[in-house]
Amino acid sequence: MFPLGIRRQRGATLIELMMGLAVIAFVLALGMPSMSHWVTMNKATSAGEFYAEGFSMARRQAVLHNAASRIVLSPNLANGQMDWQVDICFPVTGTPCNDQSGAWSTTTTAAANDPDGAAGFTSVFRAADSLPQSDVLAPSLVPDGASTIYFTSLGWVDTTVDARLTRIRLDPADRYHGEIPSVAVSVTLAGMATKCNPTVNAPDSRACPP
């Protein structure tokens, strides 16, 4: 017998626990597609910033080091997007800074003729692993086949380099039209990276530069 006013507390039965878990599982199952969709949208929105950061860094390093710089885009085999790497080079007589030159920095070694020697600038590599799959947001390079932008020590695009990259465009798959906007990142001759809308034309202020 329990004293008056005090009830014996009863534990939950196995059936009640199972019912509670079933309700939680049902709620989670409803929410997972929405969460997955939100993550995809968030990744797609950040894609333009990822490339704008790379273009801006390449220009900044050229000016900072009074050197030539370049950004090289390469395919990310995991998701079909484009990784990027920023290198610098210190041109001297007889050692030009071009694709065939071995004077560029790498991710492990400083450039030849770097004033800081072996402790100088090493290349910066960024993988596009955080971006959505290319069947969600497809990248394309302009002009087709180009993958590198070269900058002079003043931060201007080196126009002596043929077939230089001028823009990366990101377009959503058909099933995401209306949810994910097309976006492009263009680099002007002054070396400035600009996000723009490749689906509109001038005089619309959102249009990409010619």
From TrEMBL:
It comes from the Bacteria. The chain crosses the membrane at residues 12-32. This is Type IV fimbrial biogenesis protein FimT. The keyword Oxidoreductase does not apply. Keywords: Membrane, Transmembrane, Transmembrane helix. SUPFAM superfamilies: Pili subunits. InterPro entries: N_methyl_site, Pilin-like. The lineage of its organism: Bacteria, Pseudomonadati, Pseudomonadota, Betaproteobacteria, Burkholderiales. Signal peptide: none annotated.
